[in-house]
UniProtKB/TrEMBL annotation:
Pfam assignment, any one: IGPD
Entry-linked InterPro entries: IGPD_sf (IPR038494), ImidazoleglycerolP_deHydtase (IPR000807), Ribosomal_Su5_D2-typ_SF (IPR020568)
The protein's name in its UniProt record: Imidazoleglycerol-phosphate dehydratase
Naturally occurring in which organism (per UniProt): Candidatus Carbonibacillus altaicus
UniProt GO MF annotations: imidazoleglycerol-phosphate dehydratase activity
Keyword Amino-acid biosynthesis among UniProt keywords: yes
Lineage: Bacteria, Bacillati, Bacillota, Bacilli, Bacillales
Length: 226
């Protein structure tokens, strides 16, 4: 079993996200304890569909800002998933996937690729989003996906396909269901893909020269590749 724990601390927030691939945690609700109940419910859908156990806590310093909670939690979860993929790179995980999510009249699509290219693209199409659902603004839920793309260095596309006008609960539930199912596809394994990366470019390696004016020396920084 692999467990990844990410702490994200700033002057605004203290976020902790834990993921693991152990037996399903049927008490997952008890471990999703941000101050935003509807957001916790959406995180529950990610855990339910992705096959990962997910825990999330969030505390704020000073101002209560829902946007900070959702975005920073997304960043931490993205970092956790990215780390999980790196730790399991030799196990033939796809690293990319797409899925549809639906509940009743609402339908959404999510496409994911973990190629160290951070981008979030959101297309609501003709779906009319409410300004707020269950006390949480739509823009704050969008911020979660923006944060995830940054933390996971991933490409994330979210397209809303169908939805009853302003029926935010079902619209967002379809979106988070699709996101969790797409993560499941990302984490699928195929022994033939052992050692392969999501894209044909392979691993990315950087070599950086740093020169300081005080001594005139140049040092080179190299990473292990991503």
């Amino acid at each position: 079993m692999h467990t990844i724990r990410v702490f994200r601390h700033t002057r605004e927030s203290h976020i902790e996200v834990v993921i693991d691939d152990g037996p399903i945690d049927w008490e997952m609700k008890e471990h999703l304890t941000t101050p935003l109940p509807f957001f916790n419910h959406m995180l529950e859908h990610i855990a339910w569909r992705s096959g990962l156990n997910v825990k999330a806590t969030a505390k704020l310093d000073g101002f209560f800002l829902a946007h900070v909670i959702t975005e920073d939690t997304g960043t931490a979860l993205g970092r956790a998933i990215d780390t999980y993929l790196e730790e399991n790179a030799s196990r033939g995980m796809f690293g990319y996937g797409f899925a549809y999510g639906t509940i009743d009249e609402a339908l959404a699509r999510v496409v994911l690729s973990f190629e160290k290219r951070a981008l979030f693209s959101f297309n609501p199409g003709s779906v009319v989003l409410p300004e707020e659902t269950e006390g949480l603004k739509s823009e704050d839920l969008i911020a979660f996906f923006e944060g995830f793309a940054q933390g996971g260095r991933a490409t994330v596309h979210l397209d809303l396909i169908k939805g009853r006008p302003s029926h935010g609960h079902h619209i967002w539930e379809a979106a988070f269901r699709a996101f969790g199912q797409a993560l499941y596809e990302v984490l699928r394994r195929d022994a033939r893909r052992e050692g392969m990366t999501p894209g044909v470019a392979g691993s990315i390696h950087f070599s950086v020269d740093v020169k300081t004016t005080s001594d005139g020396n140049t040092r080179q920084i190299e990473d292990k590749g991503v």
